[in-house]
Design a protein that fits this description.
This protein is α/β, with parallel strands linked by helices. It has a domain at 26-261: Type I PLP-dependent aspartate aminotransferase-like (Major domain) (Aspartate Aminotransferase, domain 2), CATH 3.40.640.10. The protein has helices at residues 26-38, 48-61, 72-82, 103-107, 126-132, 152-162, 213-223, 234-239, 252-283, 312-317, 320-329, 382-388, 402-417; strands spanning 65-69, 90-94, 111-115, 137-143, 165-169, 177-178, 181-182, 189-193, 206-210, 289-291, 298-299, 305-310, 335-336, 391-395. The chain has a seven-stranded mixed β-sheet with strand order 1-9-8-5-4-2-3, sandwiched between helices. Helix 3 crosses helix 7. The protein starts with 25 loop residues before the first helix and ends in a 6-residue tail after the last helix. The protein binds pyridoxal-5'-phosphate. Pyridoxal-5'-phosphate binds next to helix 3.
Length: 423
Amino acid sequence: MSELALFGGPKAVTTTPEERWVQVNSDVKAAVNELLDQGVISIGGPTGVIGEFEAAFAQMTGSGYALAMNNGTATLHSAYFAVGVKPGDEVLLPAYTWHASATPIIHCAATPVFCDILPETLTIDPDDIERRITERTRALCVVHVFGNVCDMDRICDICTRHGISLIEDASHAHGAMWKGKPVGSFGAVGCFSMQGAKAVSGGEAGVAVTDDPDLLDRMVLLGHFGRPRMGGVDVVNQIGDMSLGAKYRAHPWAIAMAHVGLKRLPELNERRTANYEFLNDQLRDCPGIEVIDALPGASRAAYLEYKFKLSRQAIQAVGRGRIVEAMAAEGAPVTADRYSDTNYTYGLLHAAPLFTAVDRTTLGGCFYDPTRPGSAPRPALPVAEDVNQRLISLPGFIDVERDSLQQVAGAMRKVMEHLDELN
Ligand SMILES: Cc1ncc(COP(=O)(O)O)c(C=O)c1O
């Protein structure tokens, strides 16, 4: 009989790798209850819990200003709007990211231009950025995907040389650093989702950071009716108290929760990193598994999920689905990576109908660039397409017994060592 649990053998994981960390703990309940007791249900300016959180988040990222919002997508729309993305413009970004890095670009009636990624880190490939820059390129959005930090020396150099605005989508990377400088603080605007699964979470919320008071003004203009502004931008002053109506204001209860999370971020990031490094060390020499290292100079954080690559040989011999099935049968909480057609019909973003086949001029509203045809051919992004088929995920463990992690790694290794039995 096979040793694999899939075929009736003993399971490699005998204890449930149970996550003991809970987001909604007693501190969160106390913070939200305090607002409820005070009858605080909406805050329009940088006061109370909103002001306190913004000051703390700006400090954590080493930024001049932070602006809390109702979600991370709103921060990205605000960032693109703030740097002046408009019809006729192109915005570069990686194909391997959540769709919310891209969709706000079409809210500005501009065109997302998808770039390939580095196979080692899964982050945007600086050489491919350079290849795709045109006279129309207005901005670059880099994504510190699953907590792995982009090479910010190269990214900043590219943006400076080409006069492109830099936006960082740091939704997976709260507290991560490049050479000791926090992510989010390198470019024009740093954007952070604080949705339920994120390292700093308000359930649904987001926060943008910037050093530039004019960019802050423009973000306030788009989505924060009635909020006092700095007053440096003429058009903002002319419009006065009236915003452009996007209403991206955050809920104070969500921000109260996020503020509790922010206070524990360094401690929880240390735990995440220790668990990730432990798993990486356990699996580094495992046949058929490639670990995903950080670039020298990068300090990973937040993670969201832990990623591993299966080798091309393993994929060709057995296929990712079967390997995931066998690992899950062993009791390891392994899944196929979710930025692929395994979990969403659109696959990677550069292949998604919204950015390729669909004629966006037929959508109504202003979700297309009137200076261009409504649809575009799918670009060739060989690395993203290859790597995407090979990635597997584990949850971003925070507070889990070492024994359980060891068993999870053991289960993955066991399957890879018995790969021939899966055919
Ligand atoms: C990389 C990335 N960017 C942006 C977002 C959008 O954030 P939100 O869901 O808070 O709007 C997410 C959400 O998961 C994300 O993963």
